[in-house]
């Protein structure tokens, strides 16, 4: 059976792990593995890159120690090495995943500059159906 080289826990280096997680495609892979249970084949990830580029990203994550890859038949199965990373760099993955979730939320949030109806400073008066502009004082009719 073919095996792939992985760094041991003691061989993991902070610079290498951070460099691996700095790329948005690789960070997406790590986040998906964190959110999922069990192993996932490379082909199950819908990445916005070619197959050869995806292979490069998976290899970079493996060589940094972020993921473990093992052959299962003809597929390569991926697992996040969360226990090893948490032991070596406590809190690092949690911080990266929290930051990634914030960026995802900001990317899907309505843009108040282009959609004034999404403004939290406006609400509809239930009685009249008019839009009200909220200020520090009492609500005033909006134009």
Automatic annotation (TrEMBL):
Keyword DNA-binding in record: yes
GO molecular function, one term: DNA binding
Record CDD domains: HTH_ARSR (cd00090)
Record flagged with keyword Transport: no
Keyword list, A-Z: DNA-binding
Species for this entry: Brevibacterium siliguriense
Database matches in InterPro entries: ArsR-like_HTH, HTH_ArsR_DNA-bd_dom, WH-like_DNA-bd_sf, WH_DNA-bd_sf
Signal sequence, start to end: none
Domain HTH arsR-type: 6-100
Organism ancestry: Bacteria, Bacillati, Actinomycetota, Actinomycetes, Micrococcales
Chain residue ranges for the region called Disordered: 107-143
Name this polypeptide is given: DNA-binding transcriptional regulator, ArsR family
Domain of life: Bacteria
């Amino acid at each position: 059976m073919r095996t792939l080289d992985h760094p041991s826990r003691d061989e993991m280096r902070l610079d290498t792990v951070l460099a691996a997680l700095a790329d948005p495609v690789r960070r997406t892979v790590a986040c998906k593995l964190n959110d999922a249970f069990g192993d996932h084949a490379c082909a199950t990830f819908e990445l916005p890159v070619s197959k050869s580029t995806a292979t490069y990203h998976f290899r970079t994550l493996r060589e940094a120690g972020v993921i473990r890859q093992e052959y299962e038949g003809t597929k390569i199965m991926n697992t996040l090495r969360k226990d090893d990373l948490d032991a070596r760099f406590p809190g690092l993955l949690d911080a990266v995943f929290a930051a990634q979730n914030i960026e995802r939320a900001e990317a899907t949030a309505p843009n108040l500059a282009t959609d004034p109806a999404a403004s939290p400073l406006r609400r509809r008066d239930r009685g009249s159906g008019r839009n009200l502009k909220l200020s520090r004082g009492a609500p005033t009719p909006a134009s």
